[in-house]
């Protein structure tokens, strides 16, 4: 008898006839994977999962902000996103933005018929939420930030880049004008101008190339 064993698979065994001075050939050997075992981590049901980083993800039971739960895979810690009785519990979530390697997320919600932009910080033991809606004249087309510098949030709308100082809670009106696109990379802001030229500046706007 011949027995083949591979980790994670069911063993394969077969009786092979052997003849003197002849090679025995095994054809069509298929090792079947063992059935996967699933372990329930957080009781559901959940409608959506939003990975933020390796440290945390958001689970959503329903369409409201109050339906969101934070789960930390490494510590297997589960906590509600909002404090009990939060006035934001009835806000309807309509969109989200994350940045790789950042424990922050921007959530677009509707509260009382008005659209708001929320900055959610999951880096501390308890989530911290800032409402950024009053710092922007209108809802931006796109937002982003540097994962290594959480002082600023950059918003793009109508050919202009707006920089929000999250510490001082102020917005620089039209931080950059006449732009058709923007992006962040290694603590630098890259701008595609309307005339097709690519420019670079630091996050403070002090040096431009």
Describe this protein's structure.
The structure is a single chain. This protein has 209 residues and is mostly beta strands. The chain has strands at residues 2-4, 12-14, 48-51, 57-60, 68-72, 77-80, 92-98, 104-111, 114-121, 128-131, 142-146, 149-157, 160-165, 170-176, 179-185, 188-193, 198-202. A hairpin with a 7-residue loop joins strand 1 (2-4) and strand 2 (12-14).
Task: Offer a few descriptive terms.
209 residues, mainly beta, four-stranded antiparallel sheet, 45% strand, elongated
The portion of residues forming beta strands comes to over 45%
User: Span from first to last CA?
Assistant: 73 Å
Largest sheet strand order: 3-4-5-6
The gross shape turns out to be elongated
The Rg value, from CA coordinates, equals 26 Å
Mean pLDDT: 85
Q: Give a count of the beta strands, DSSP E runs of length 2 or more.
A: 17
Number of helical regions: 0
> What class do helices, strands and sheet pairing give?
mainly beta
Major beta sheet summary: 4 strands, antiparallel
Order of helices and strands: EEEEEEEEEEEEEEEEE
Low-confidence stretches: none
């Amino acid at each position: 008898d011949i027995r083949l064993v591979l980790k994670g698979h069911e063993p394969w065994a077969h009786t092979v006839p052997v003849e003197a001075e002849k090679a025995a050939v095994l054809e069509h050997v298929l090792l079947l994977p063992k059935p996967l075992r699933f372990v329930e981590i957080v009781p559901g049901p959940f409608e959506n999962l939003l990975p933020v980083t390796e440290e945390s993800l958001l689970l959503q039971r329903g369409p409201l902000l109050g339906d969101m739960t934070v789960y930390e895979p490494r510590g297997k810690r589960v906590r509600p996103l909002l404090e009990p009785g939060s006035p934001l519990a009835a806000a309807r979530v309509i969109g989200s933005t994350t940045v790789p390697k950042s424990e922050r997320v921007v959530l677009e919600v509707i509260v009382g018929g008005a659209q708001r932009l929320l900055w959610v910080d999951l880096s501390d033991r308890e989530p911290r939420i800032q409402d950024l809606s009053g710092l922007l004249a209108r809802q931006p087309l796109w937002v982003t930030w540097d994962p290594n510098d959480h002082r600023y949030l950059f918003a793009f709308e109508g050919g202009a880049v707006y920089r929000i100082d999250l510490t001082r809670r102020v917005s620089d009106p039209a931080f950059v004008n006449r732009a058709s696109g923007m992006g962040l990379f290694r603590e630098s802001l890259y701008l595609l101008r309307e005339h097709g030229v690519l420019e670079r500046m630091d996050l403070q706007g002090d040096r431009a190339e």
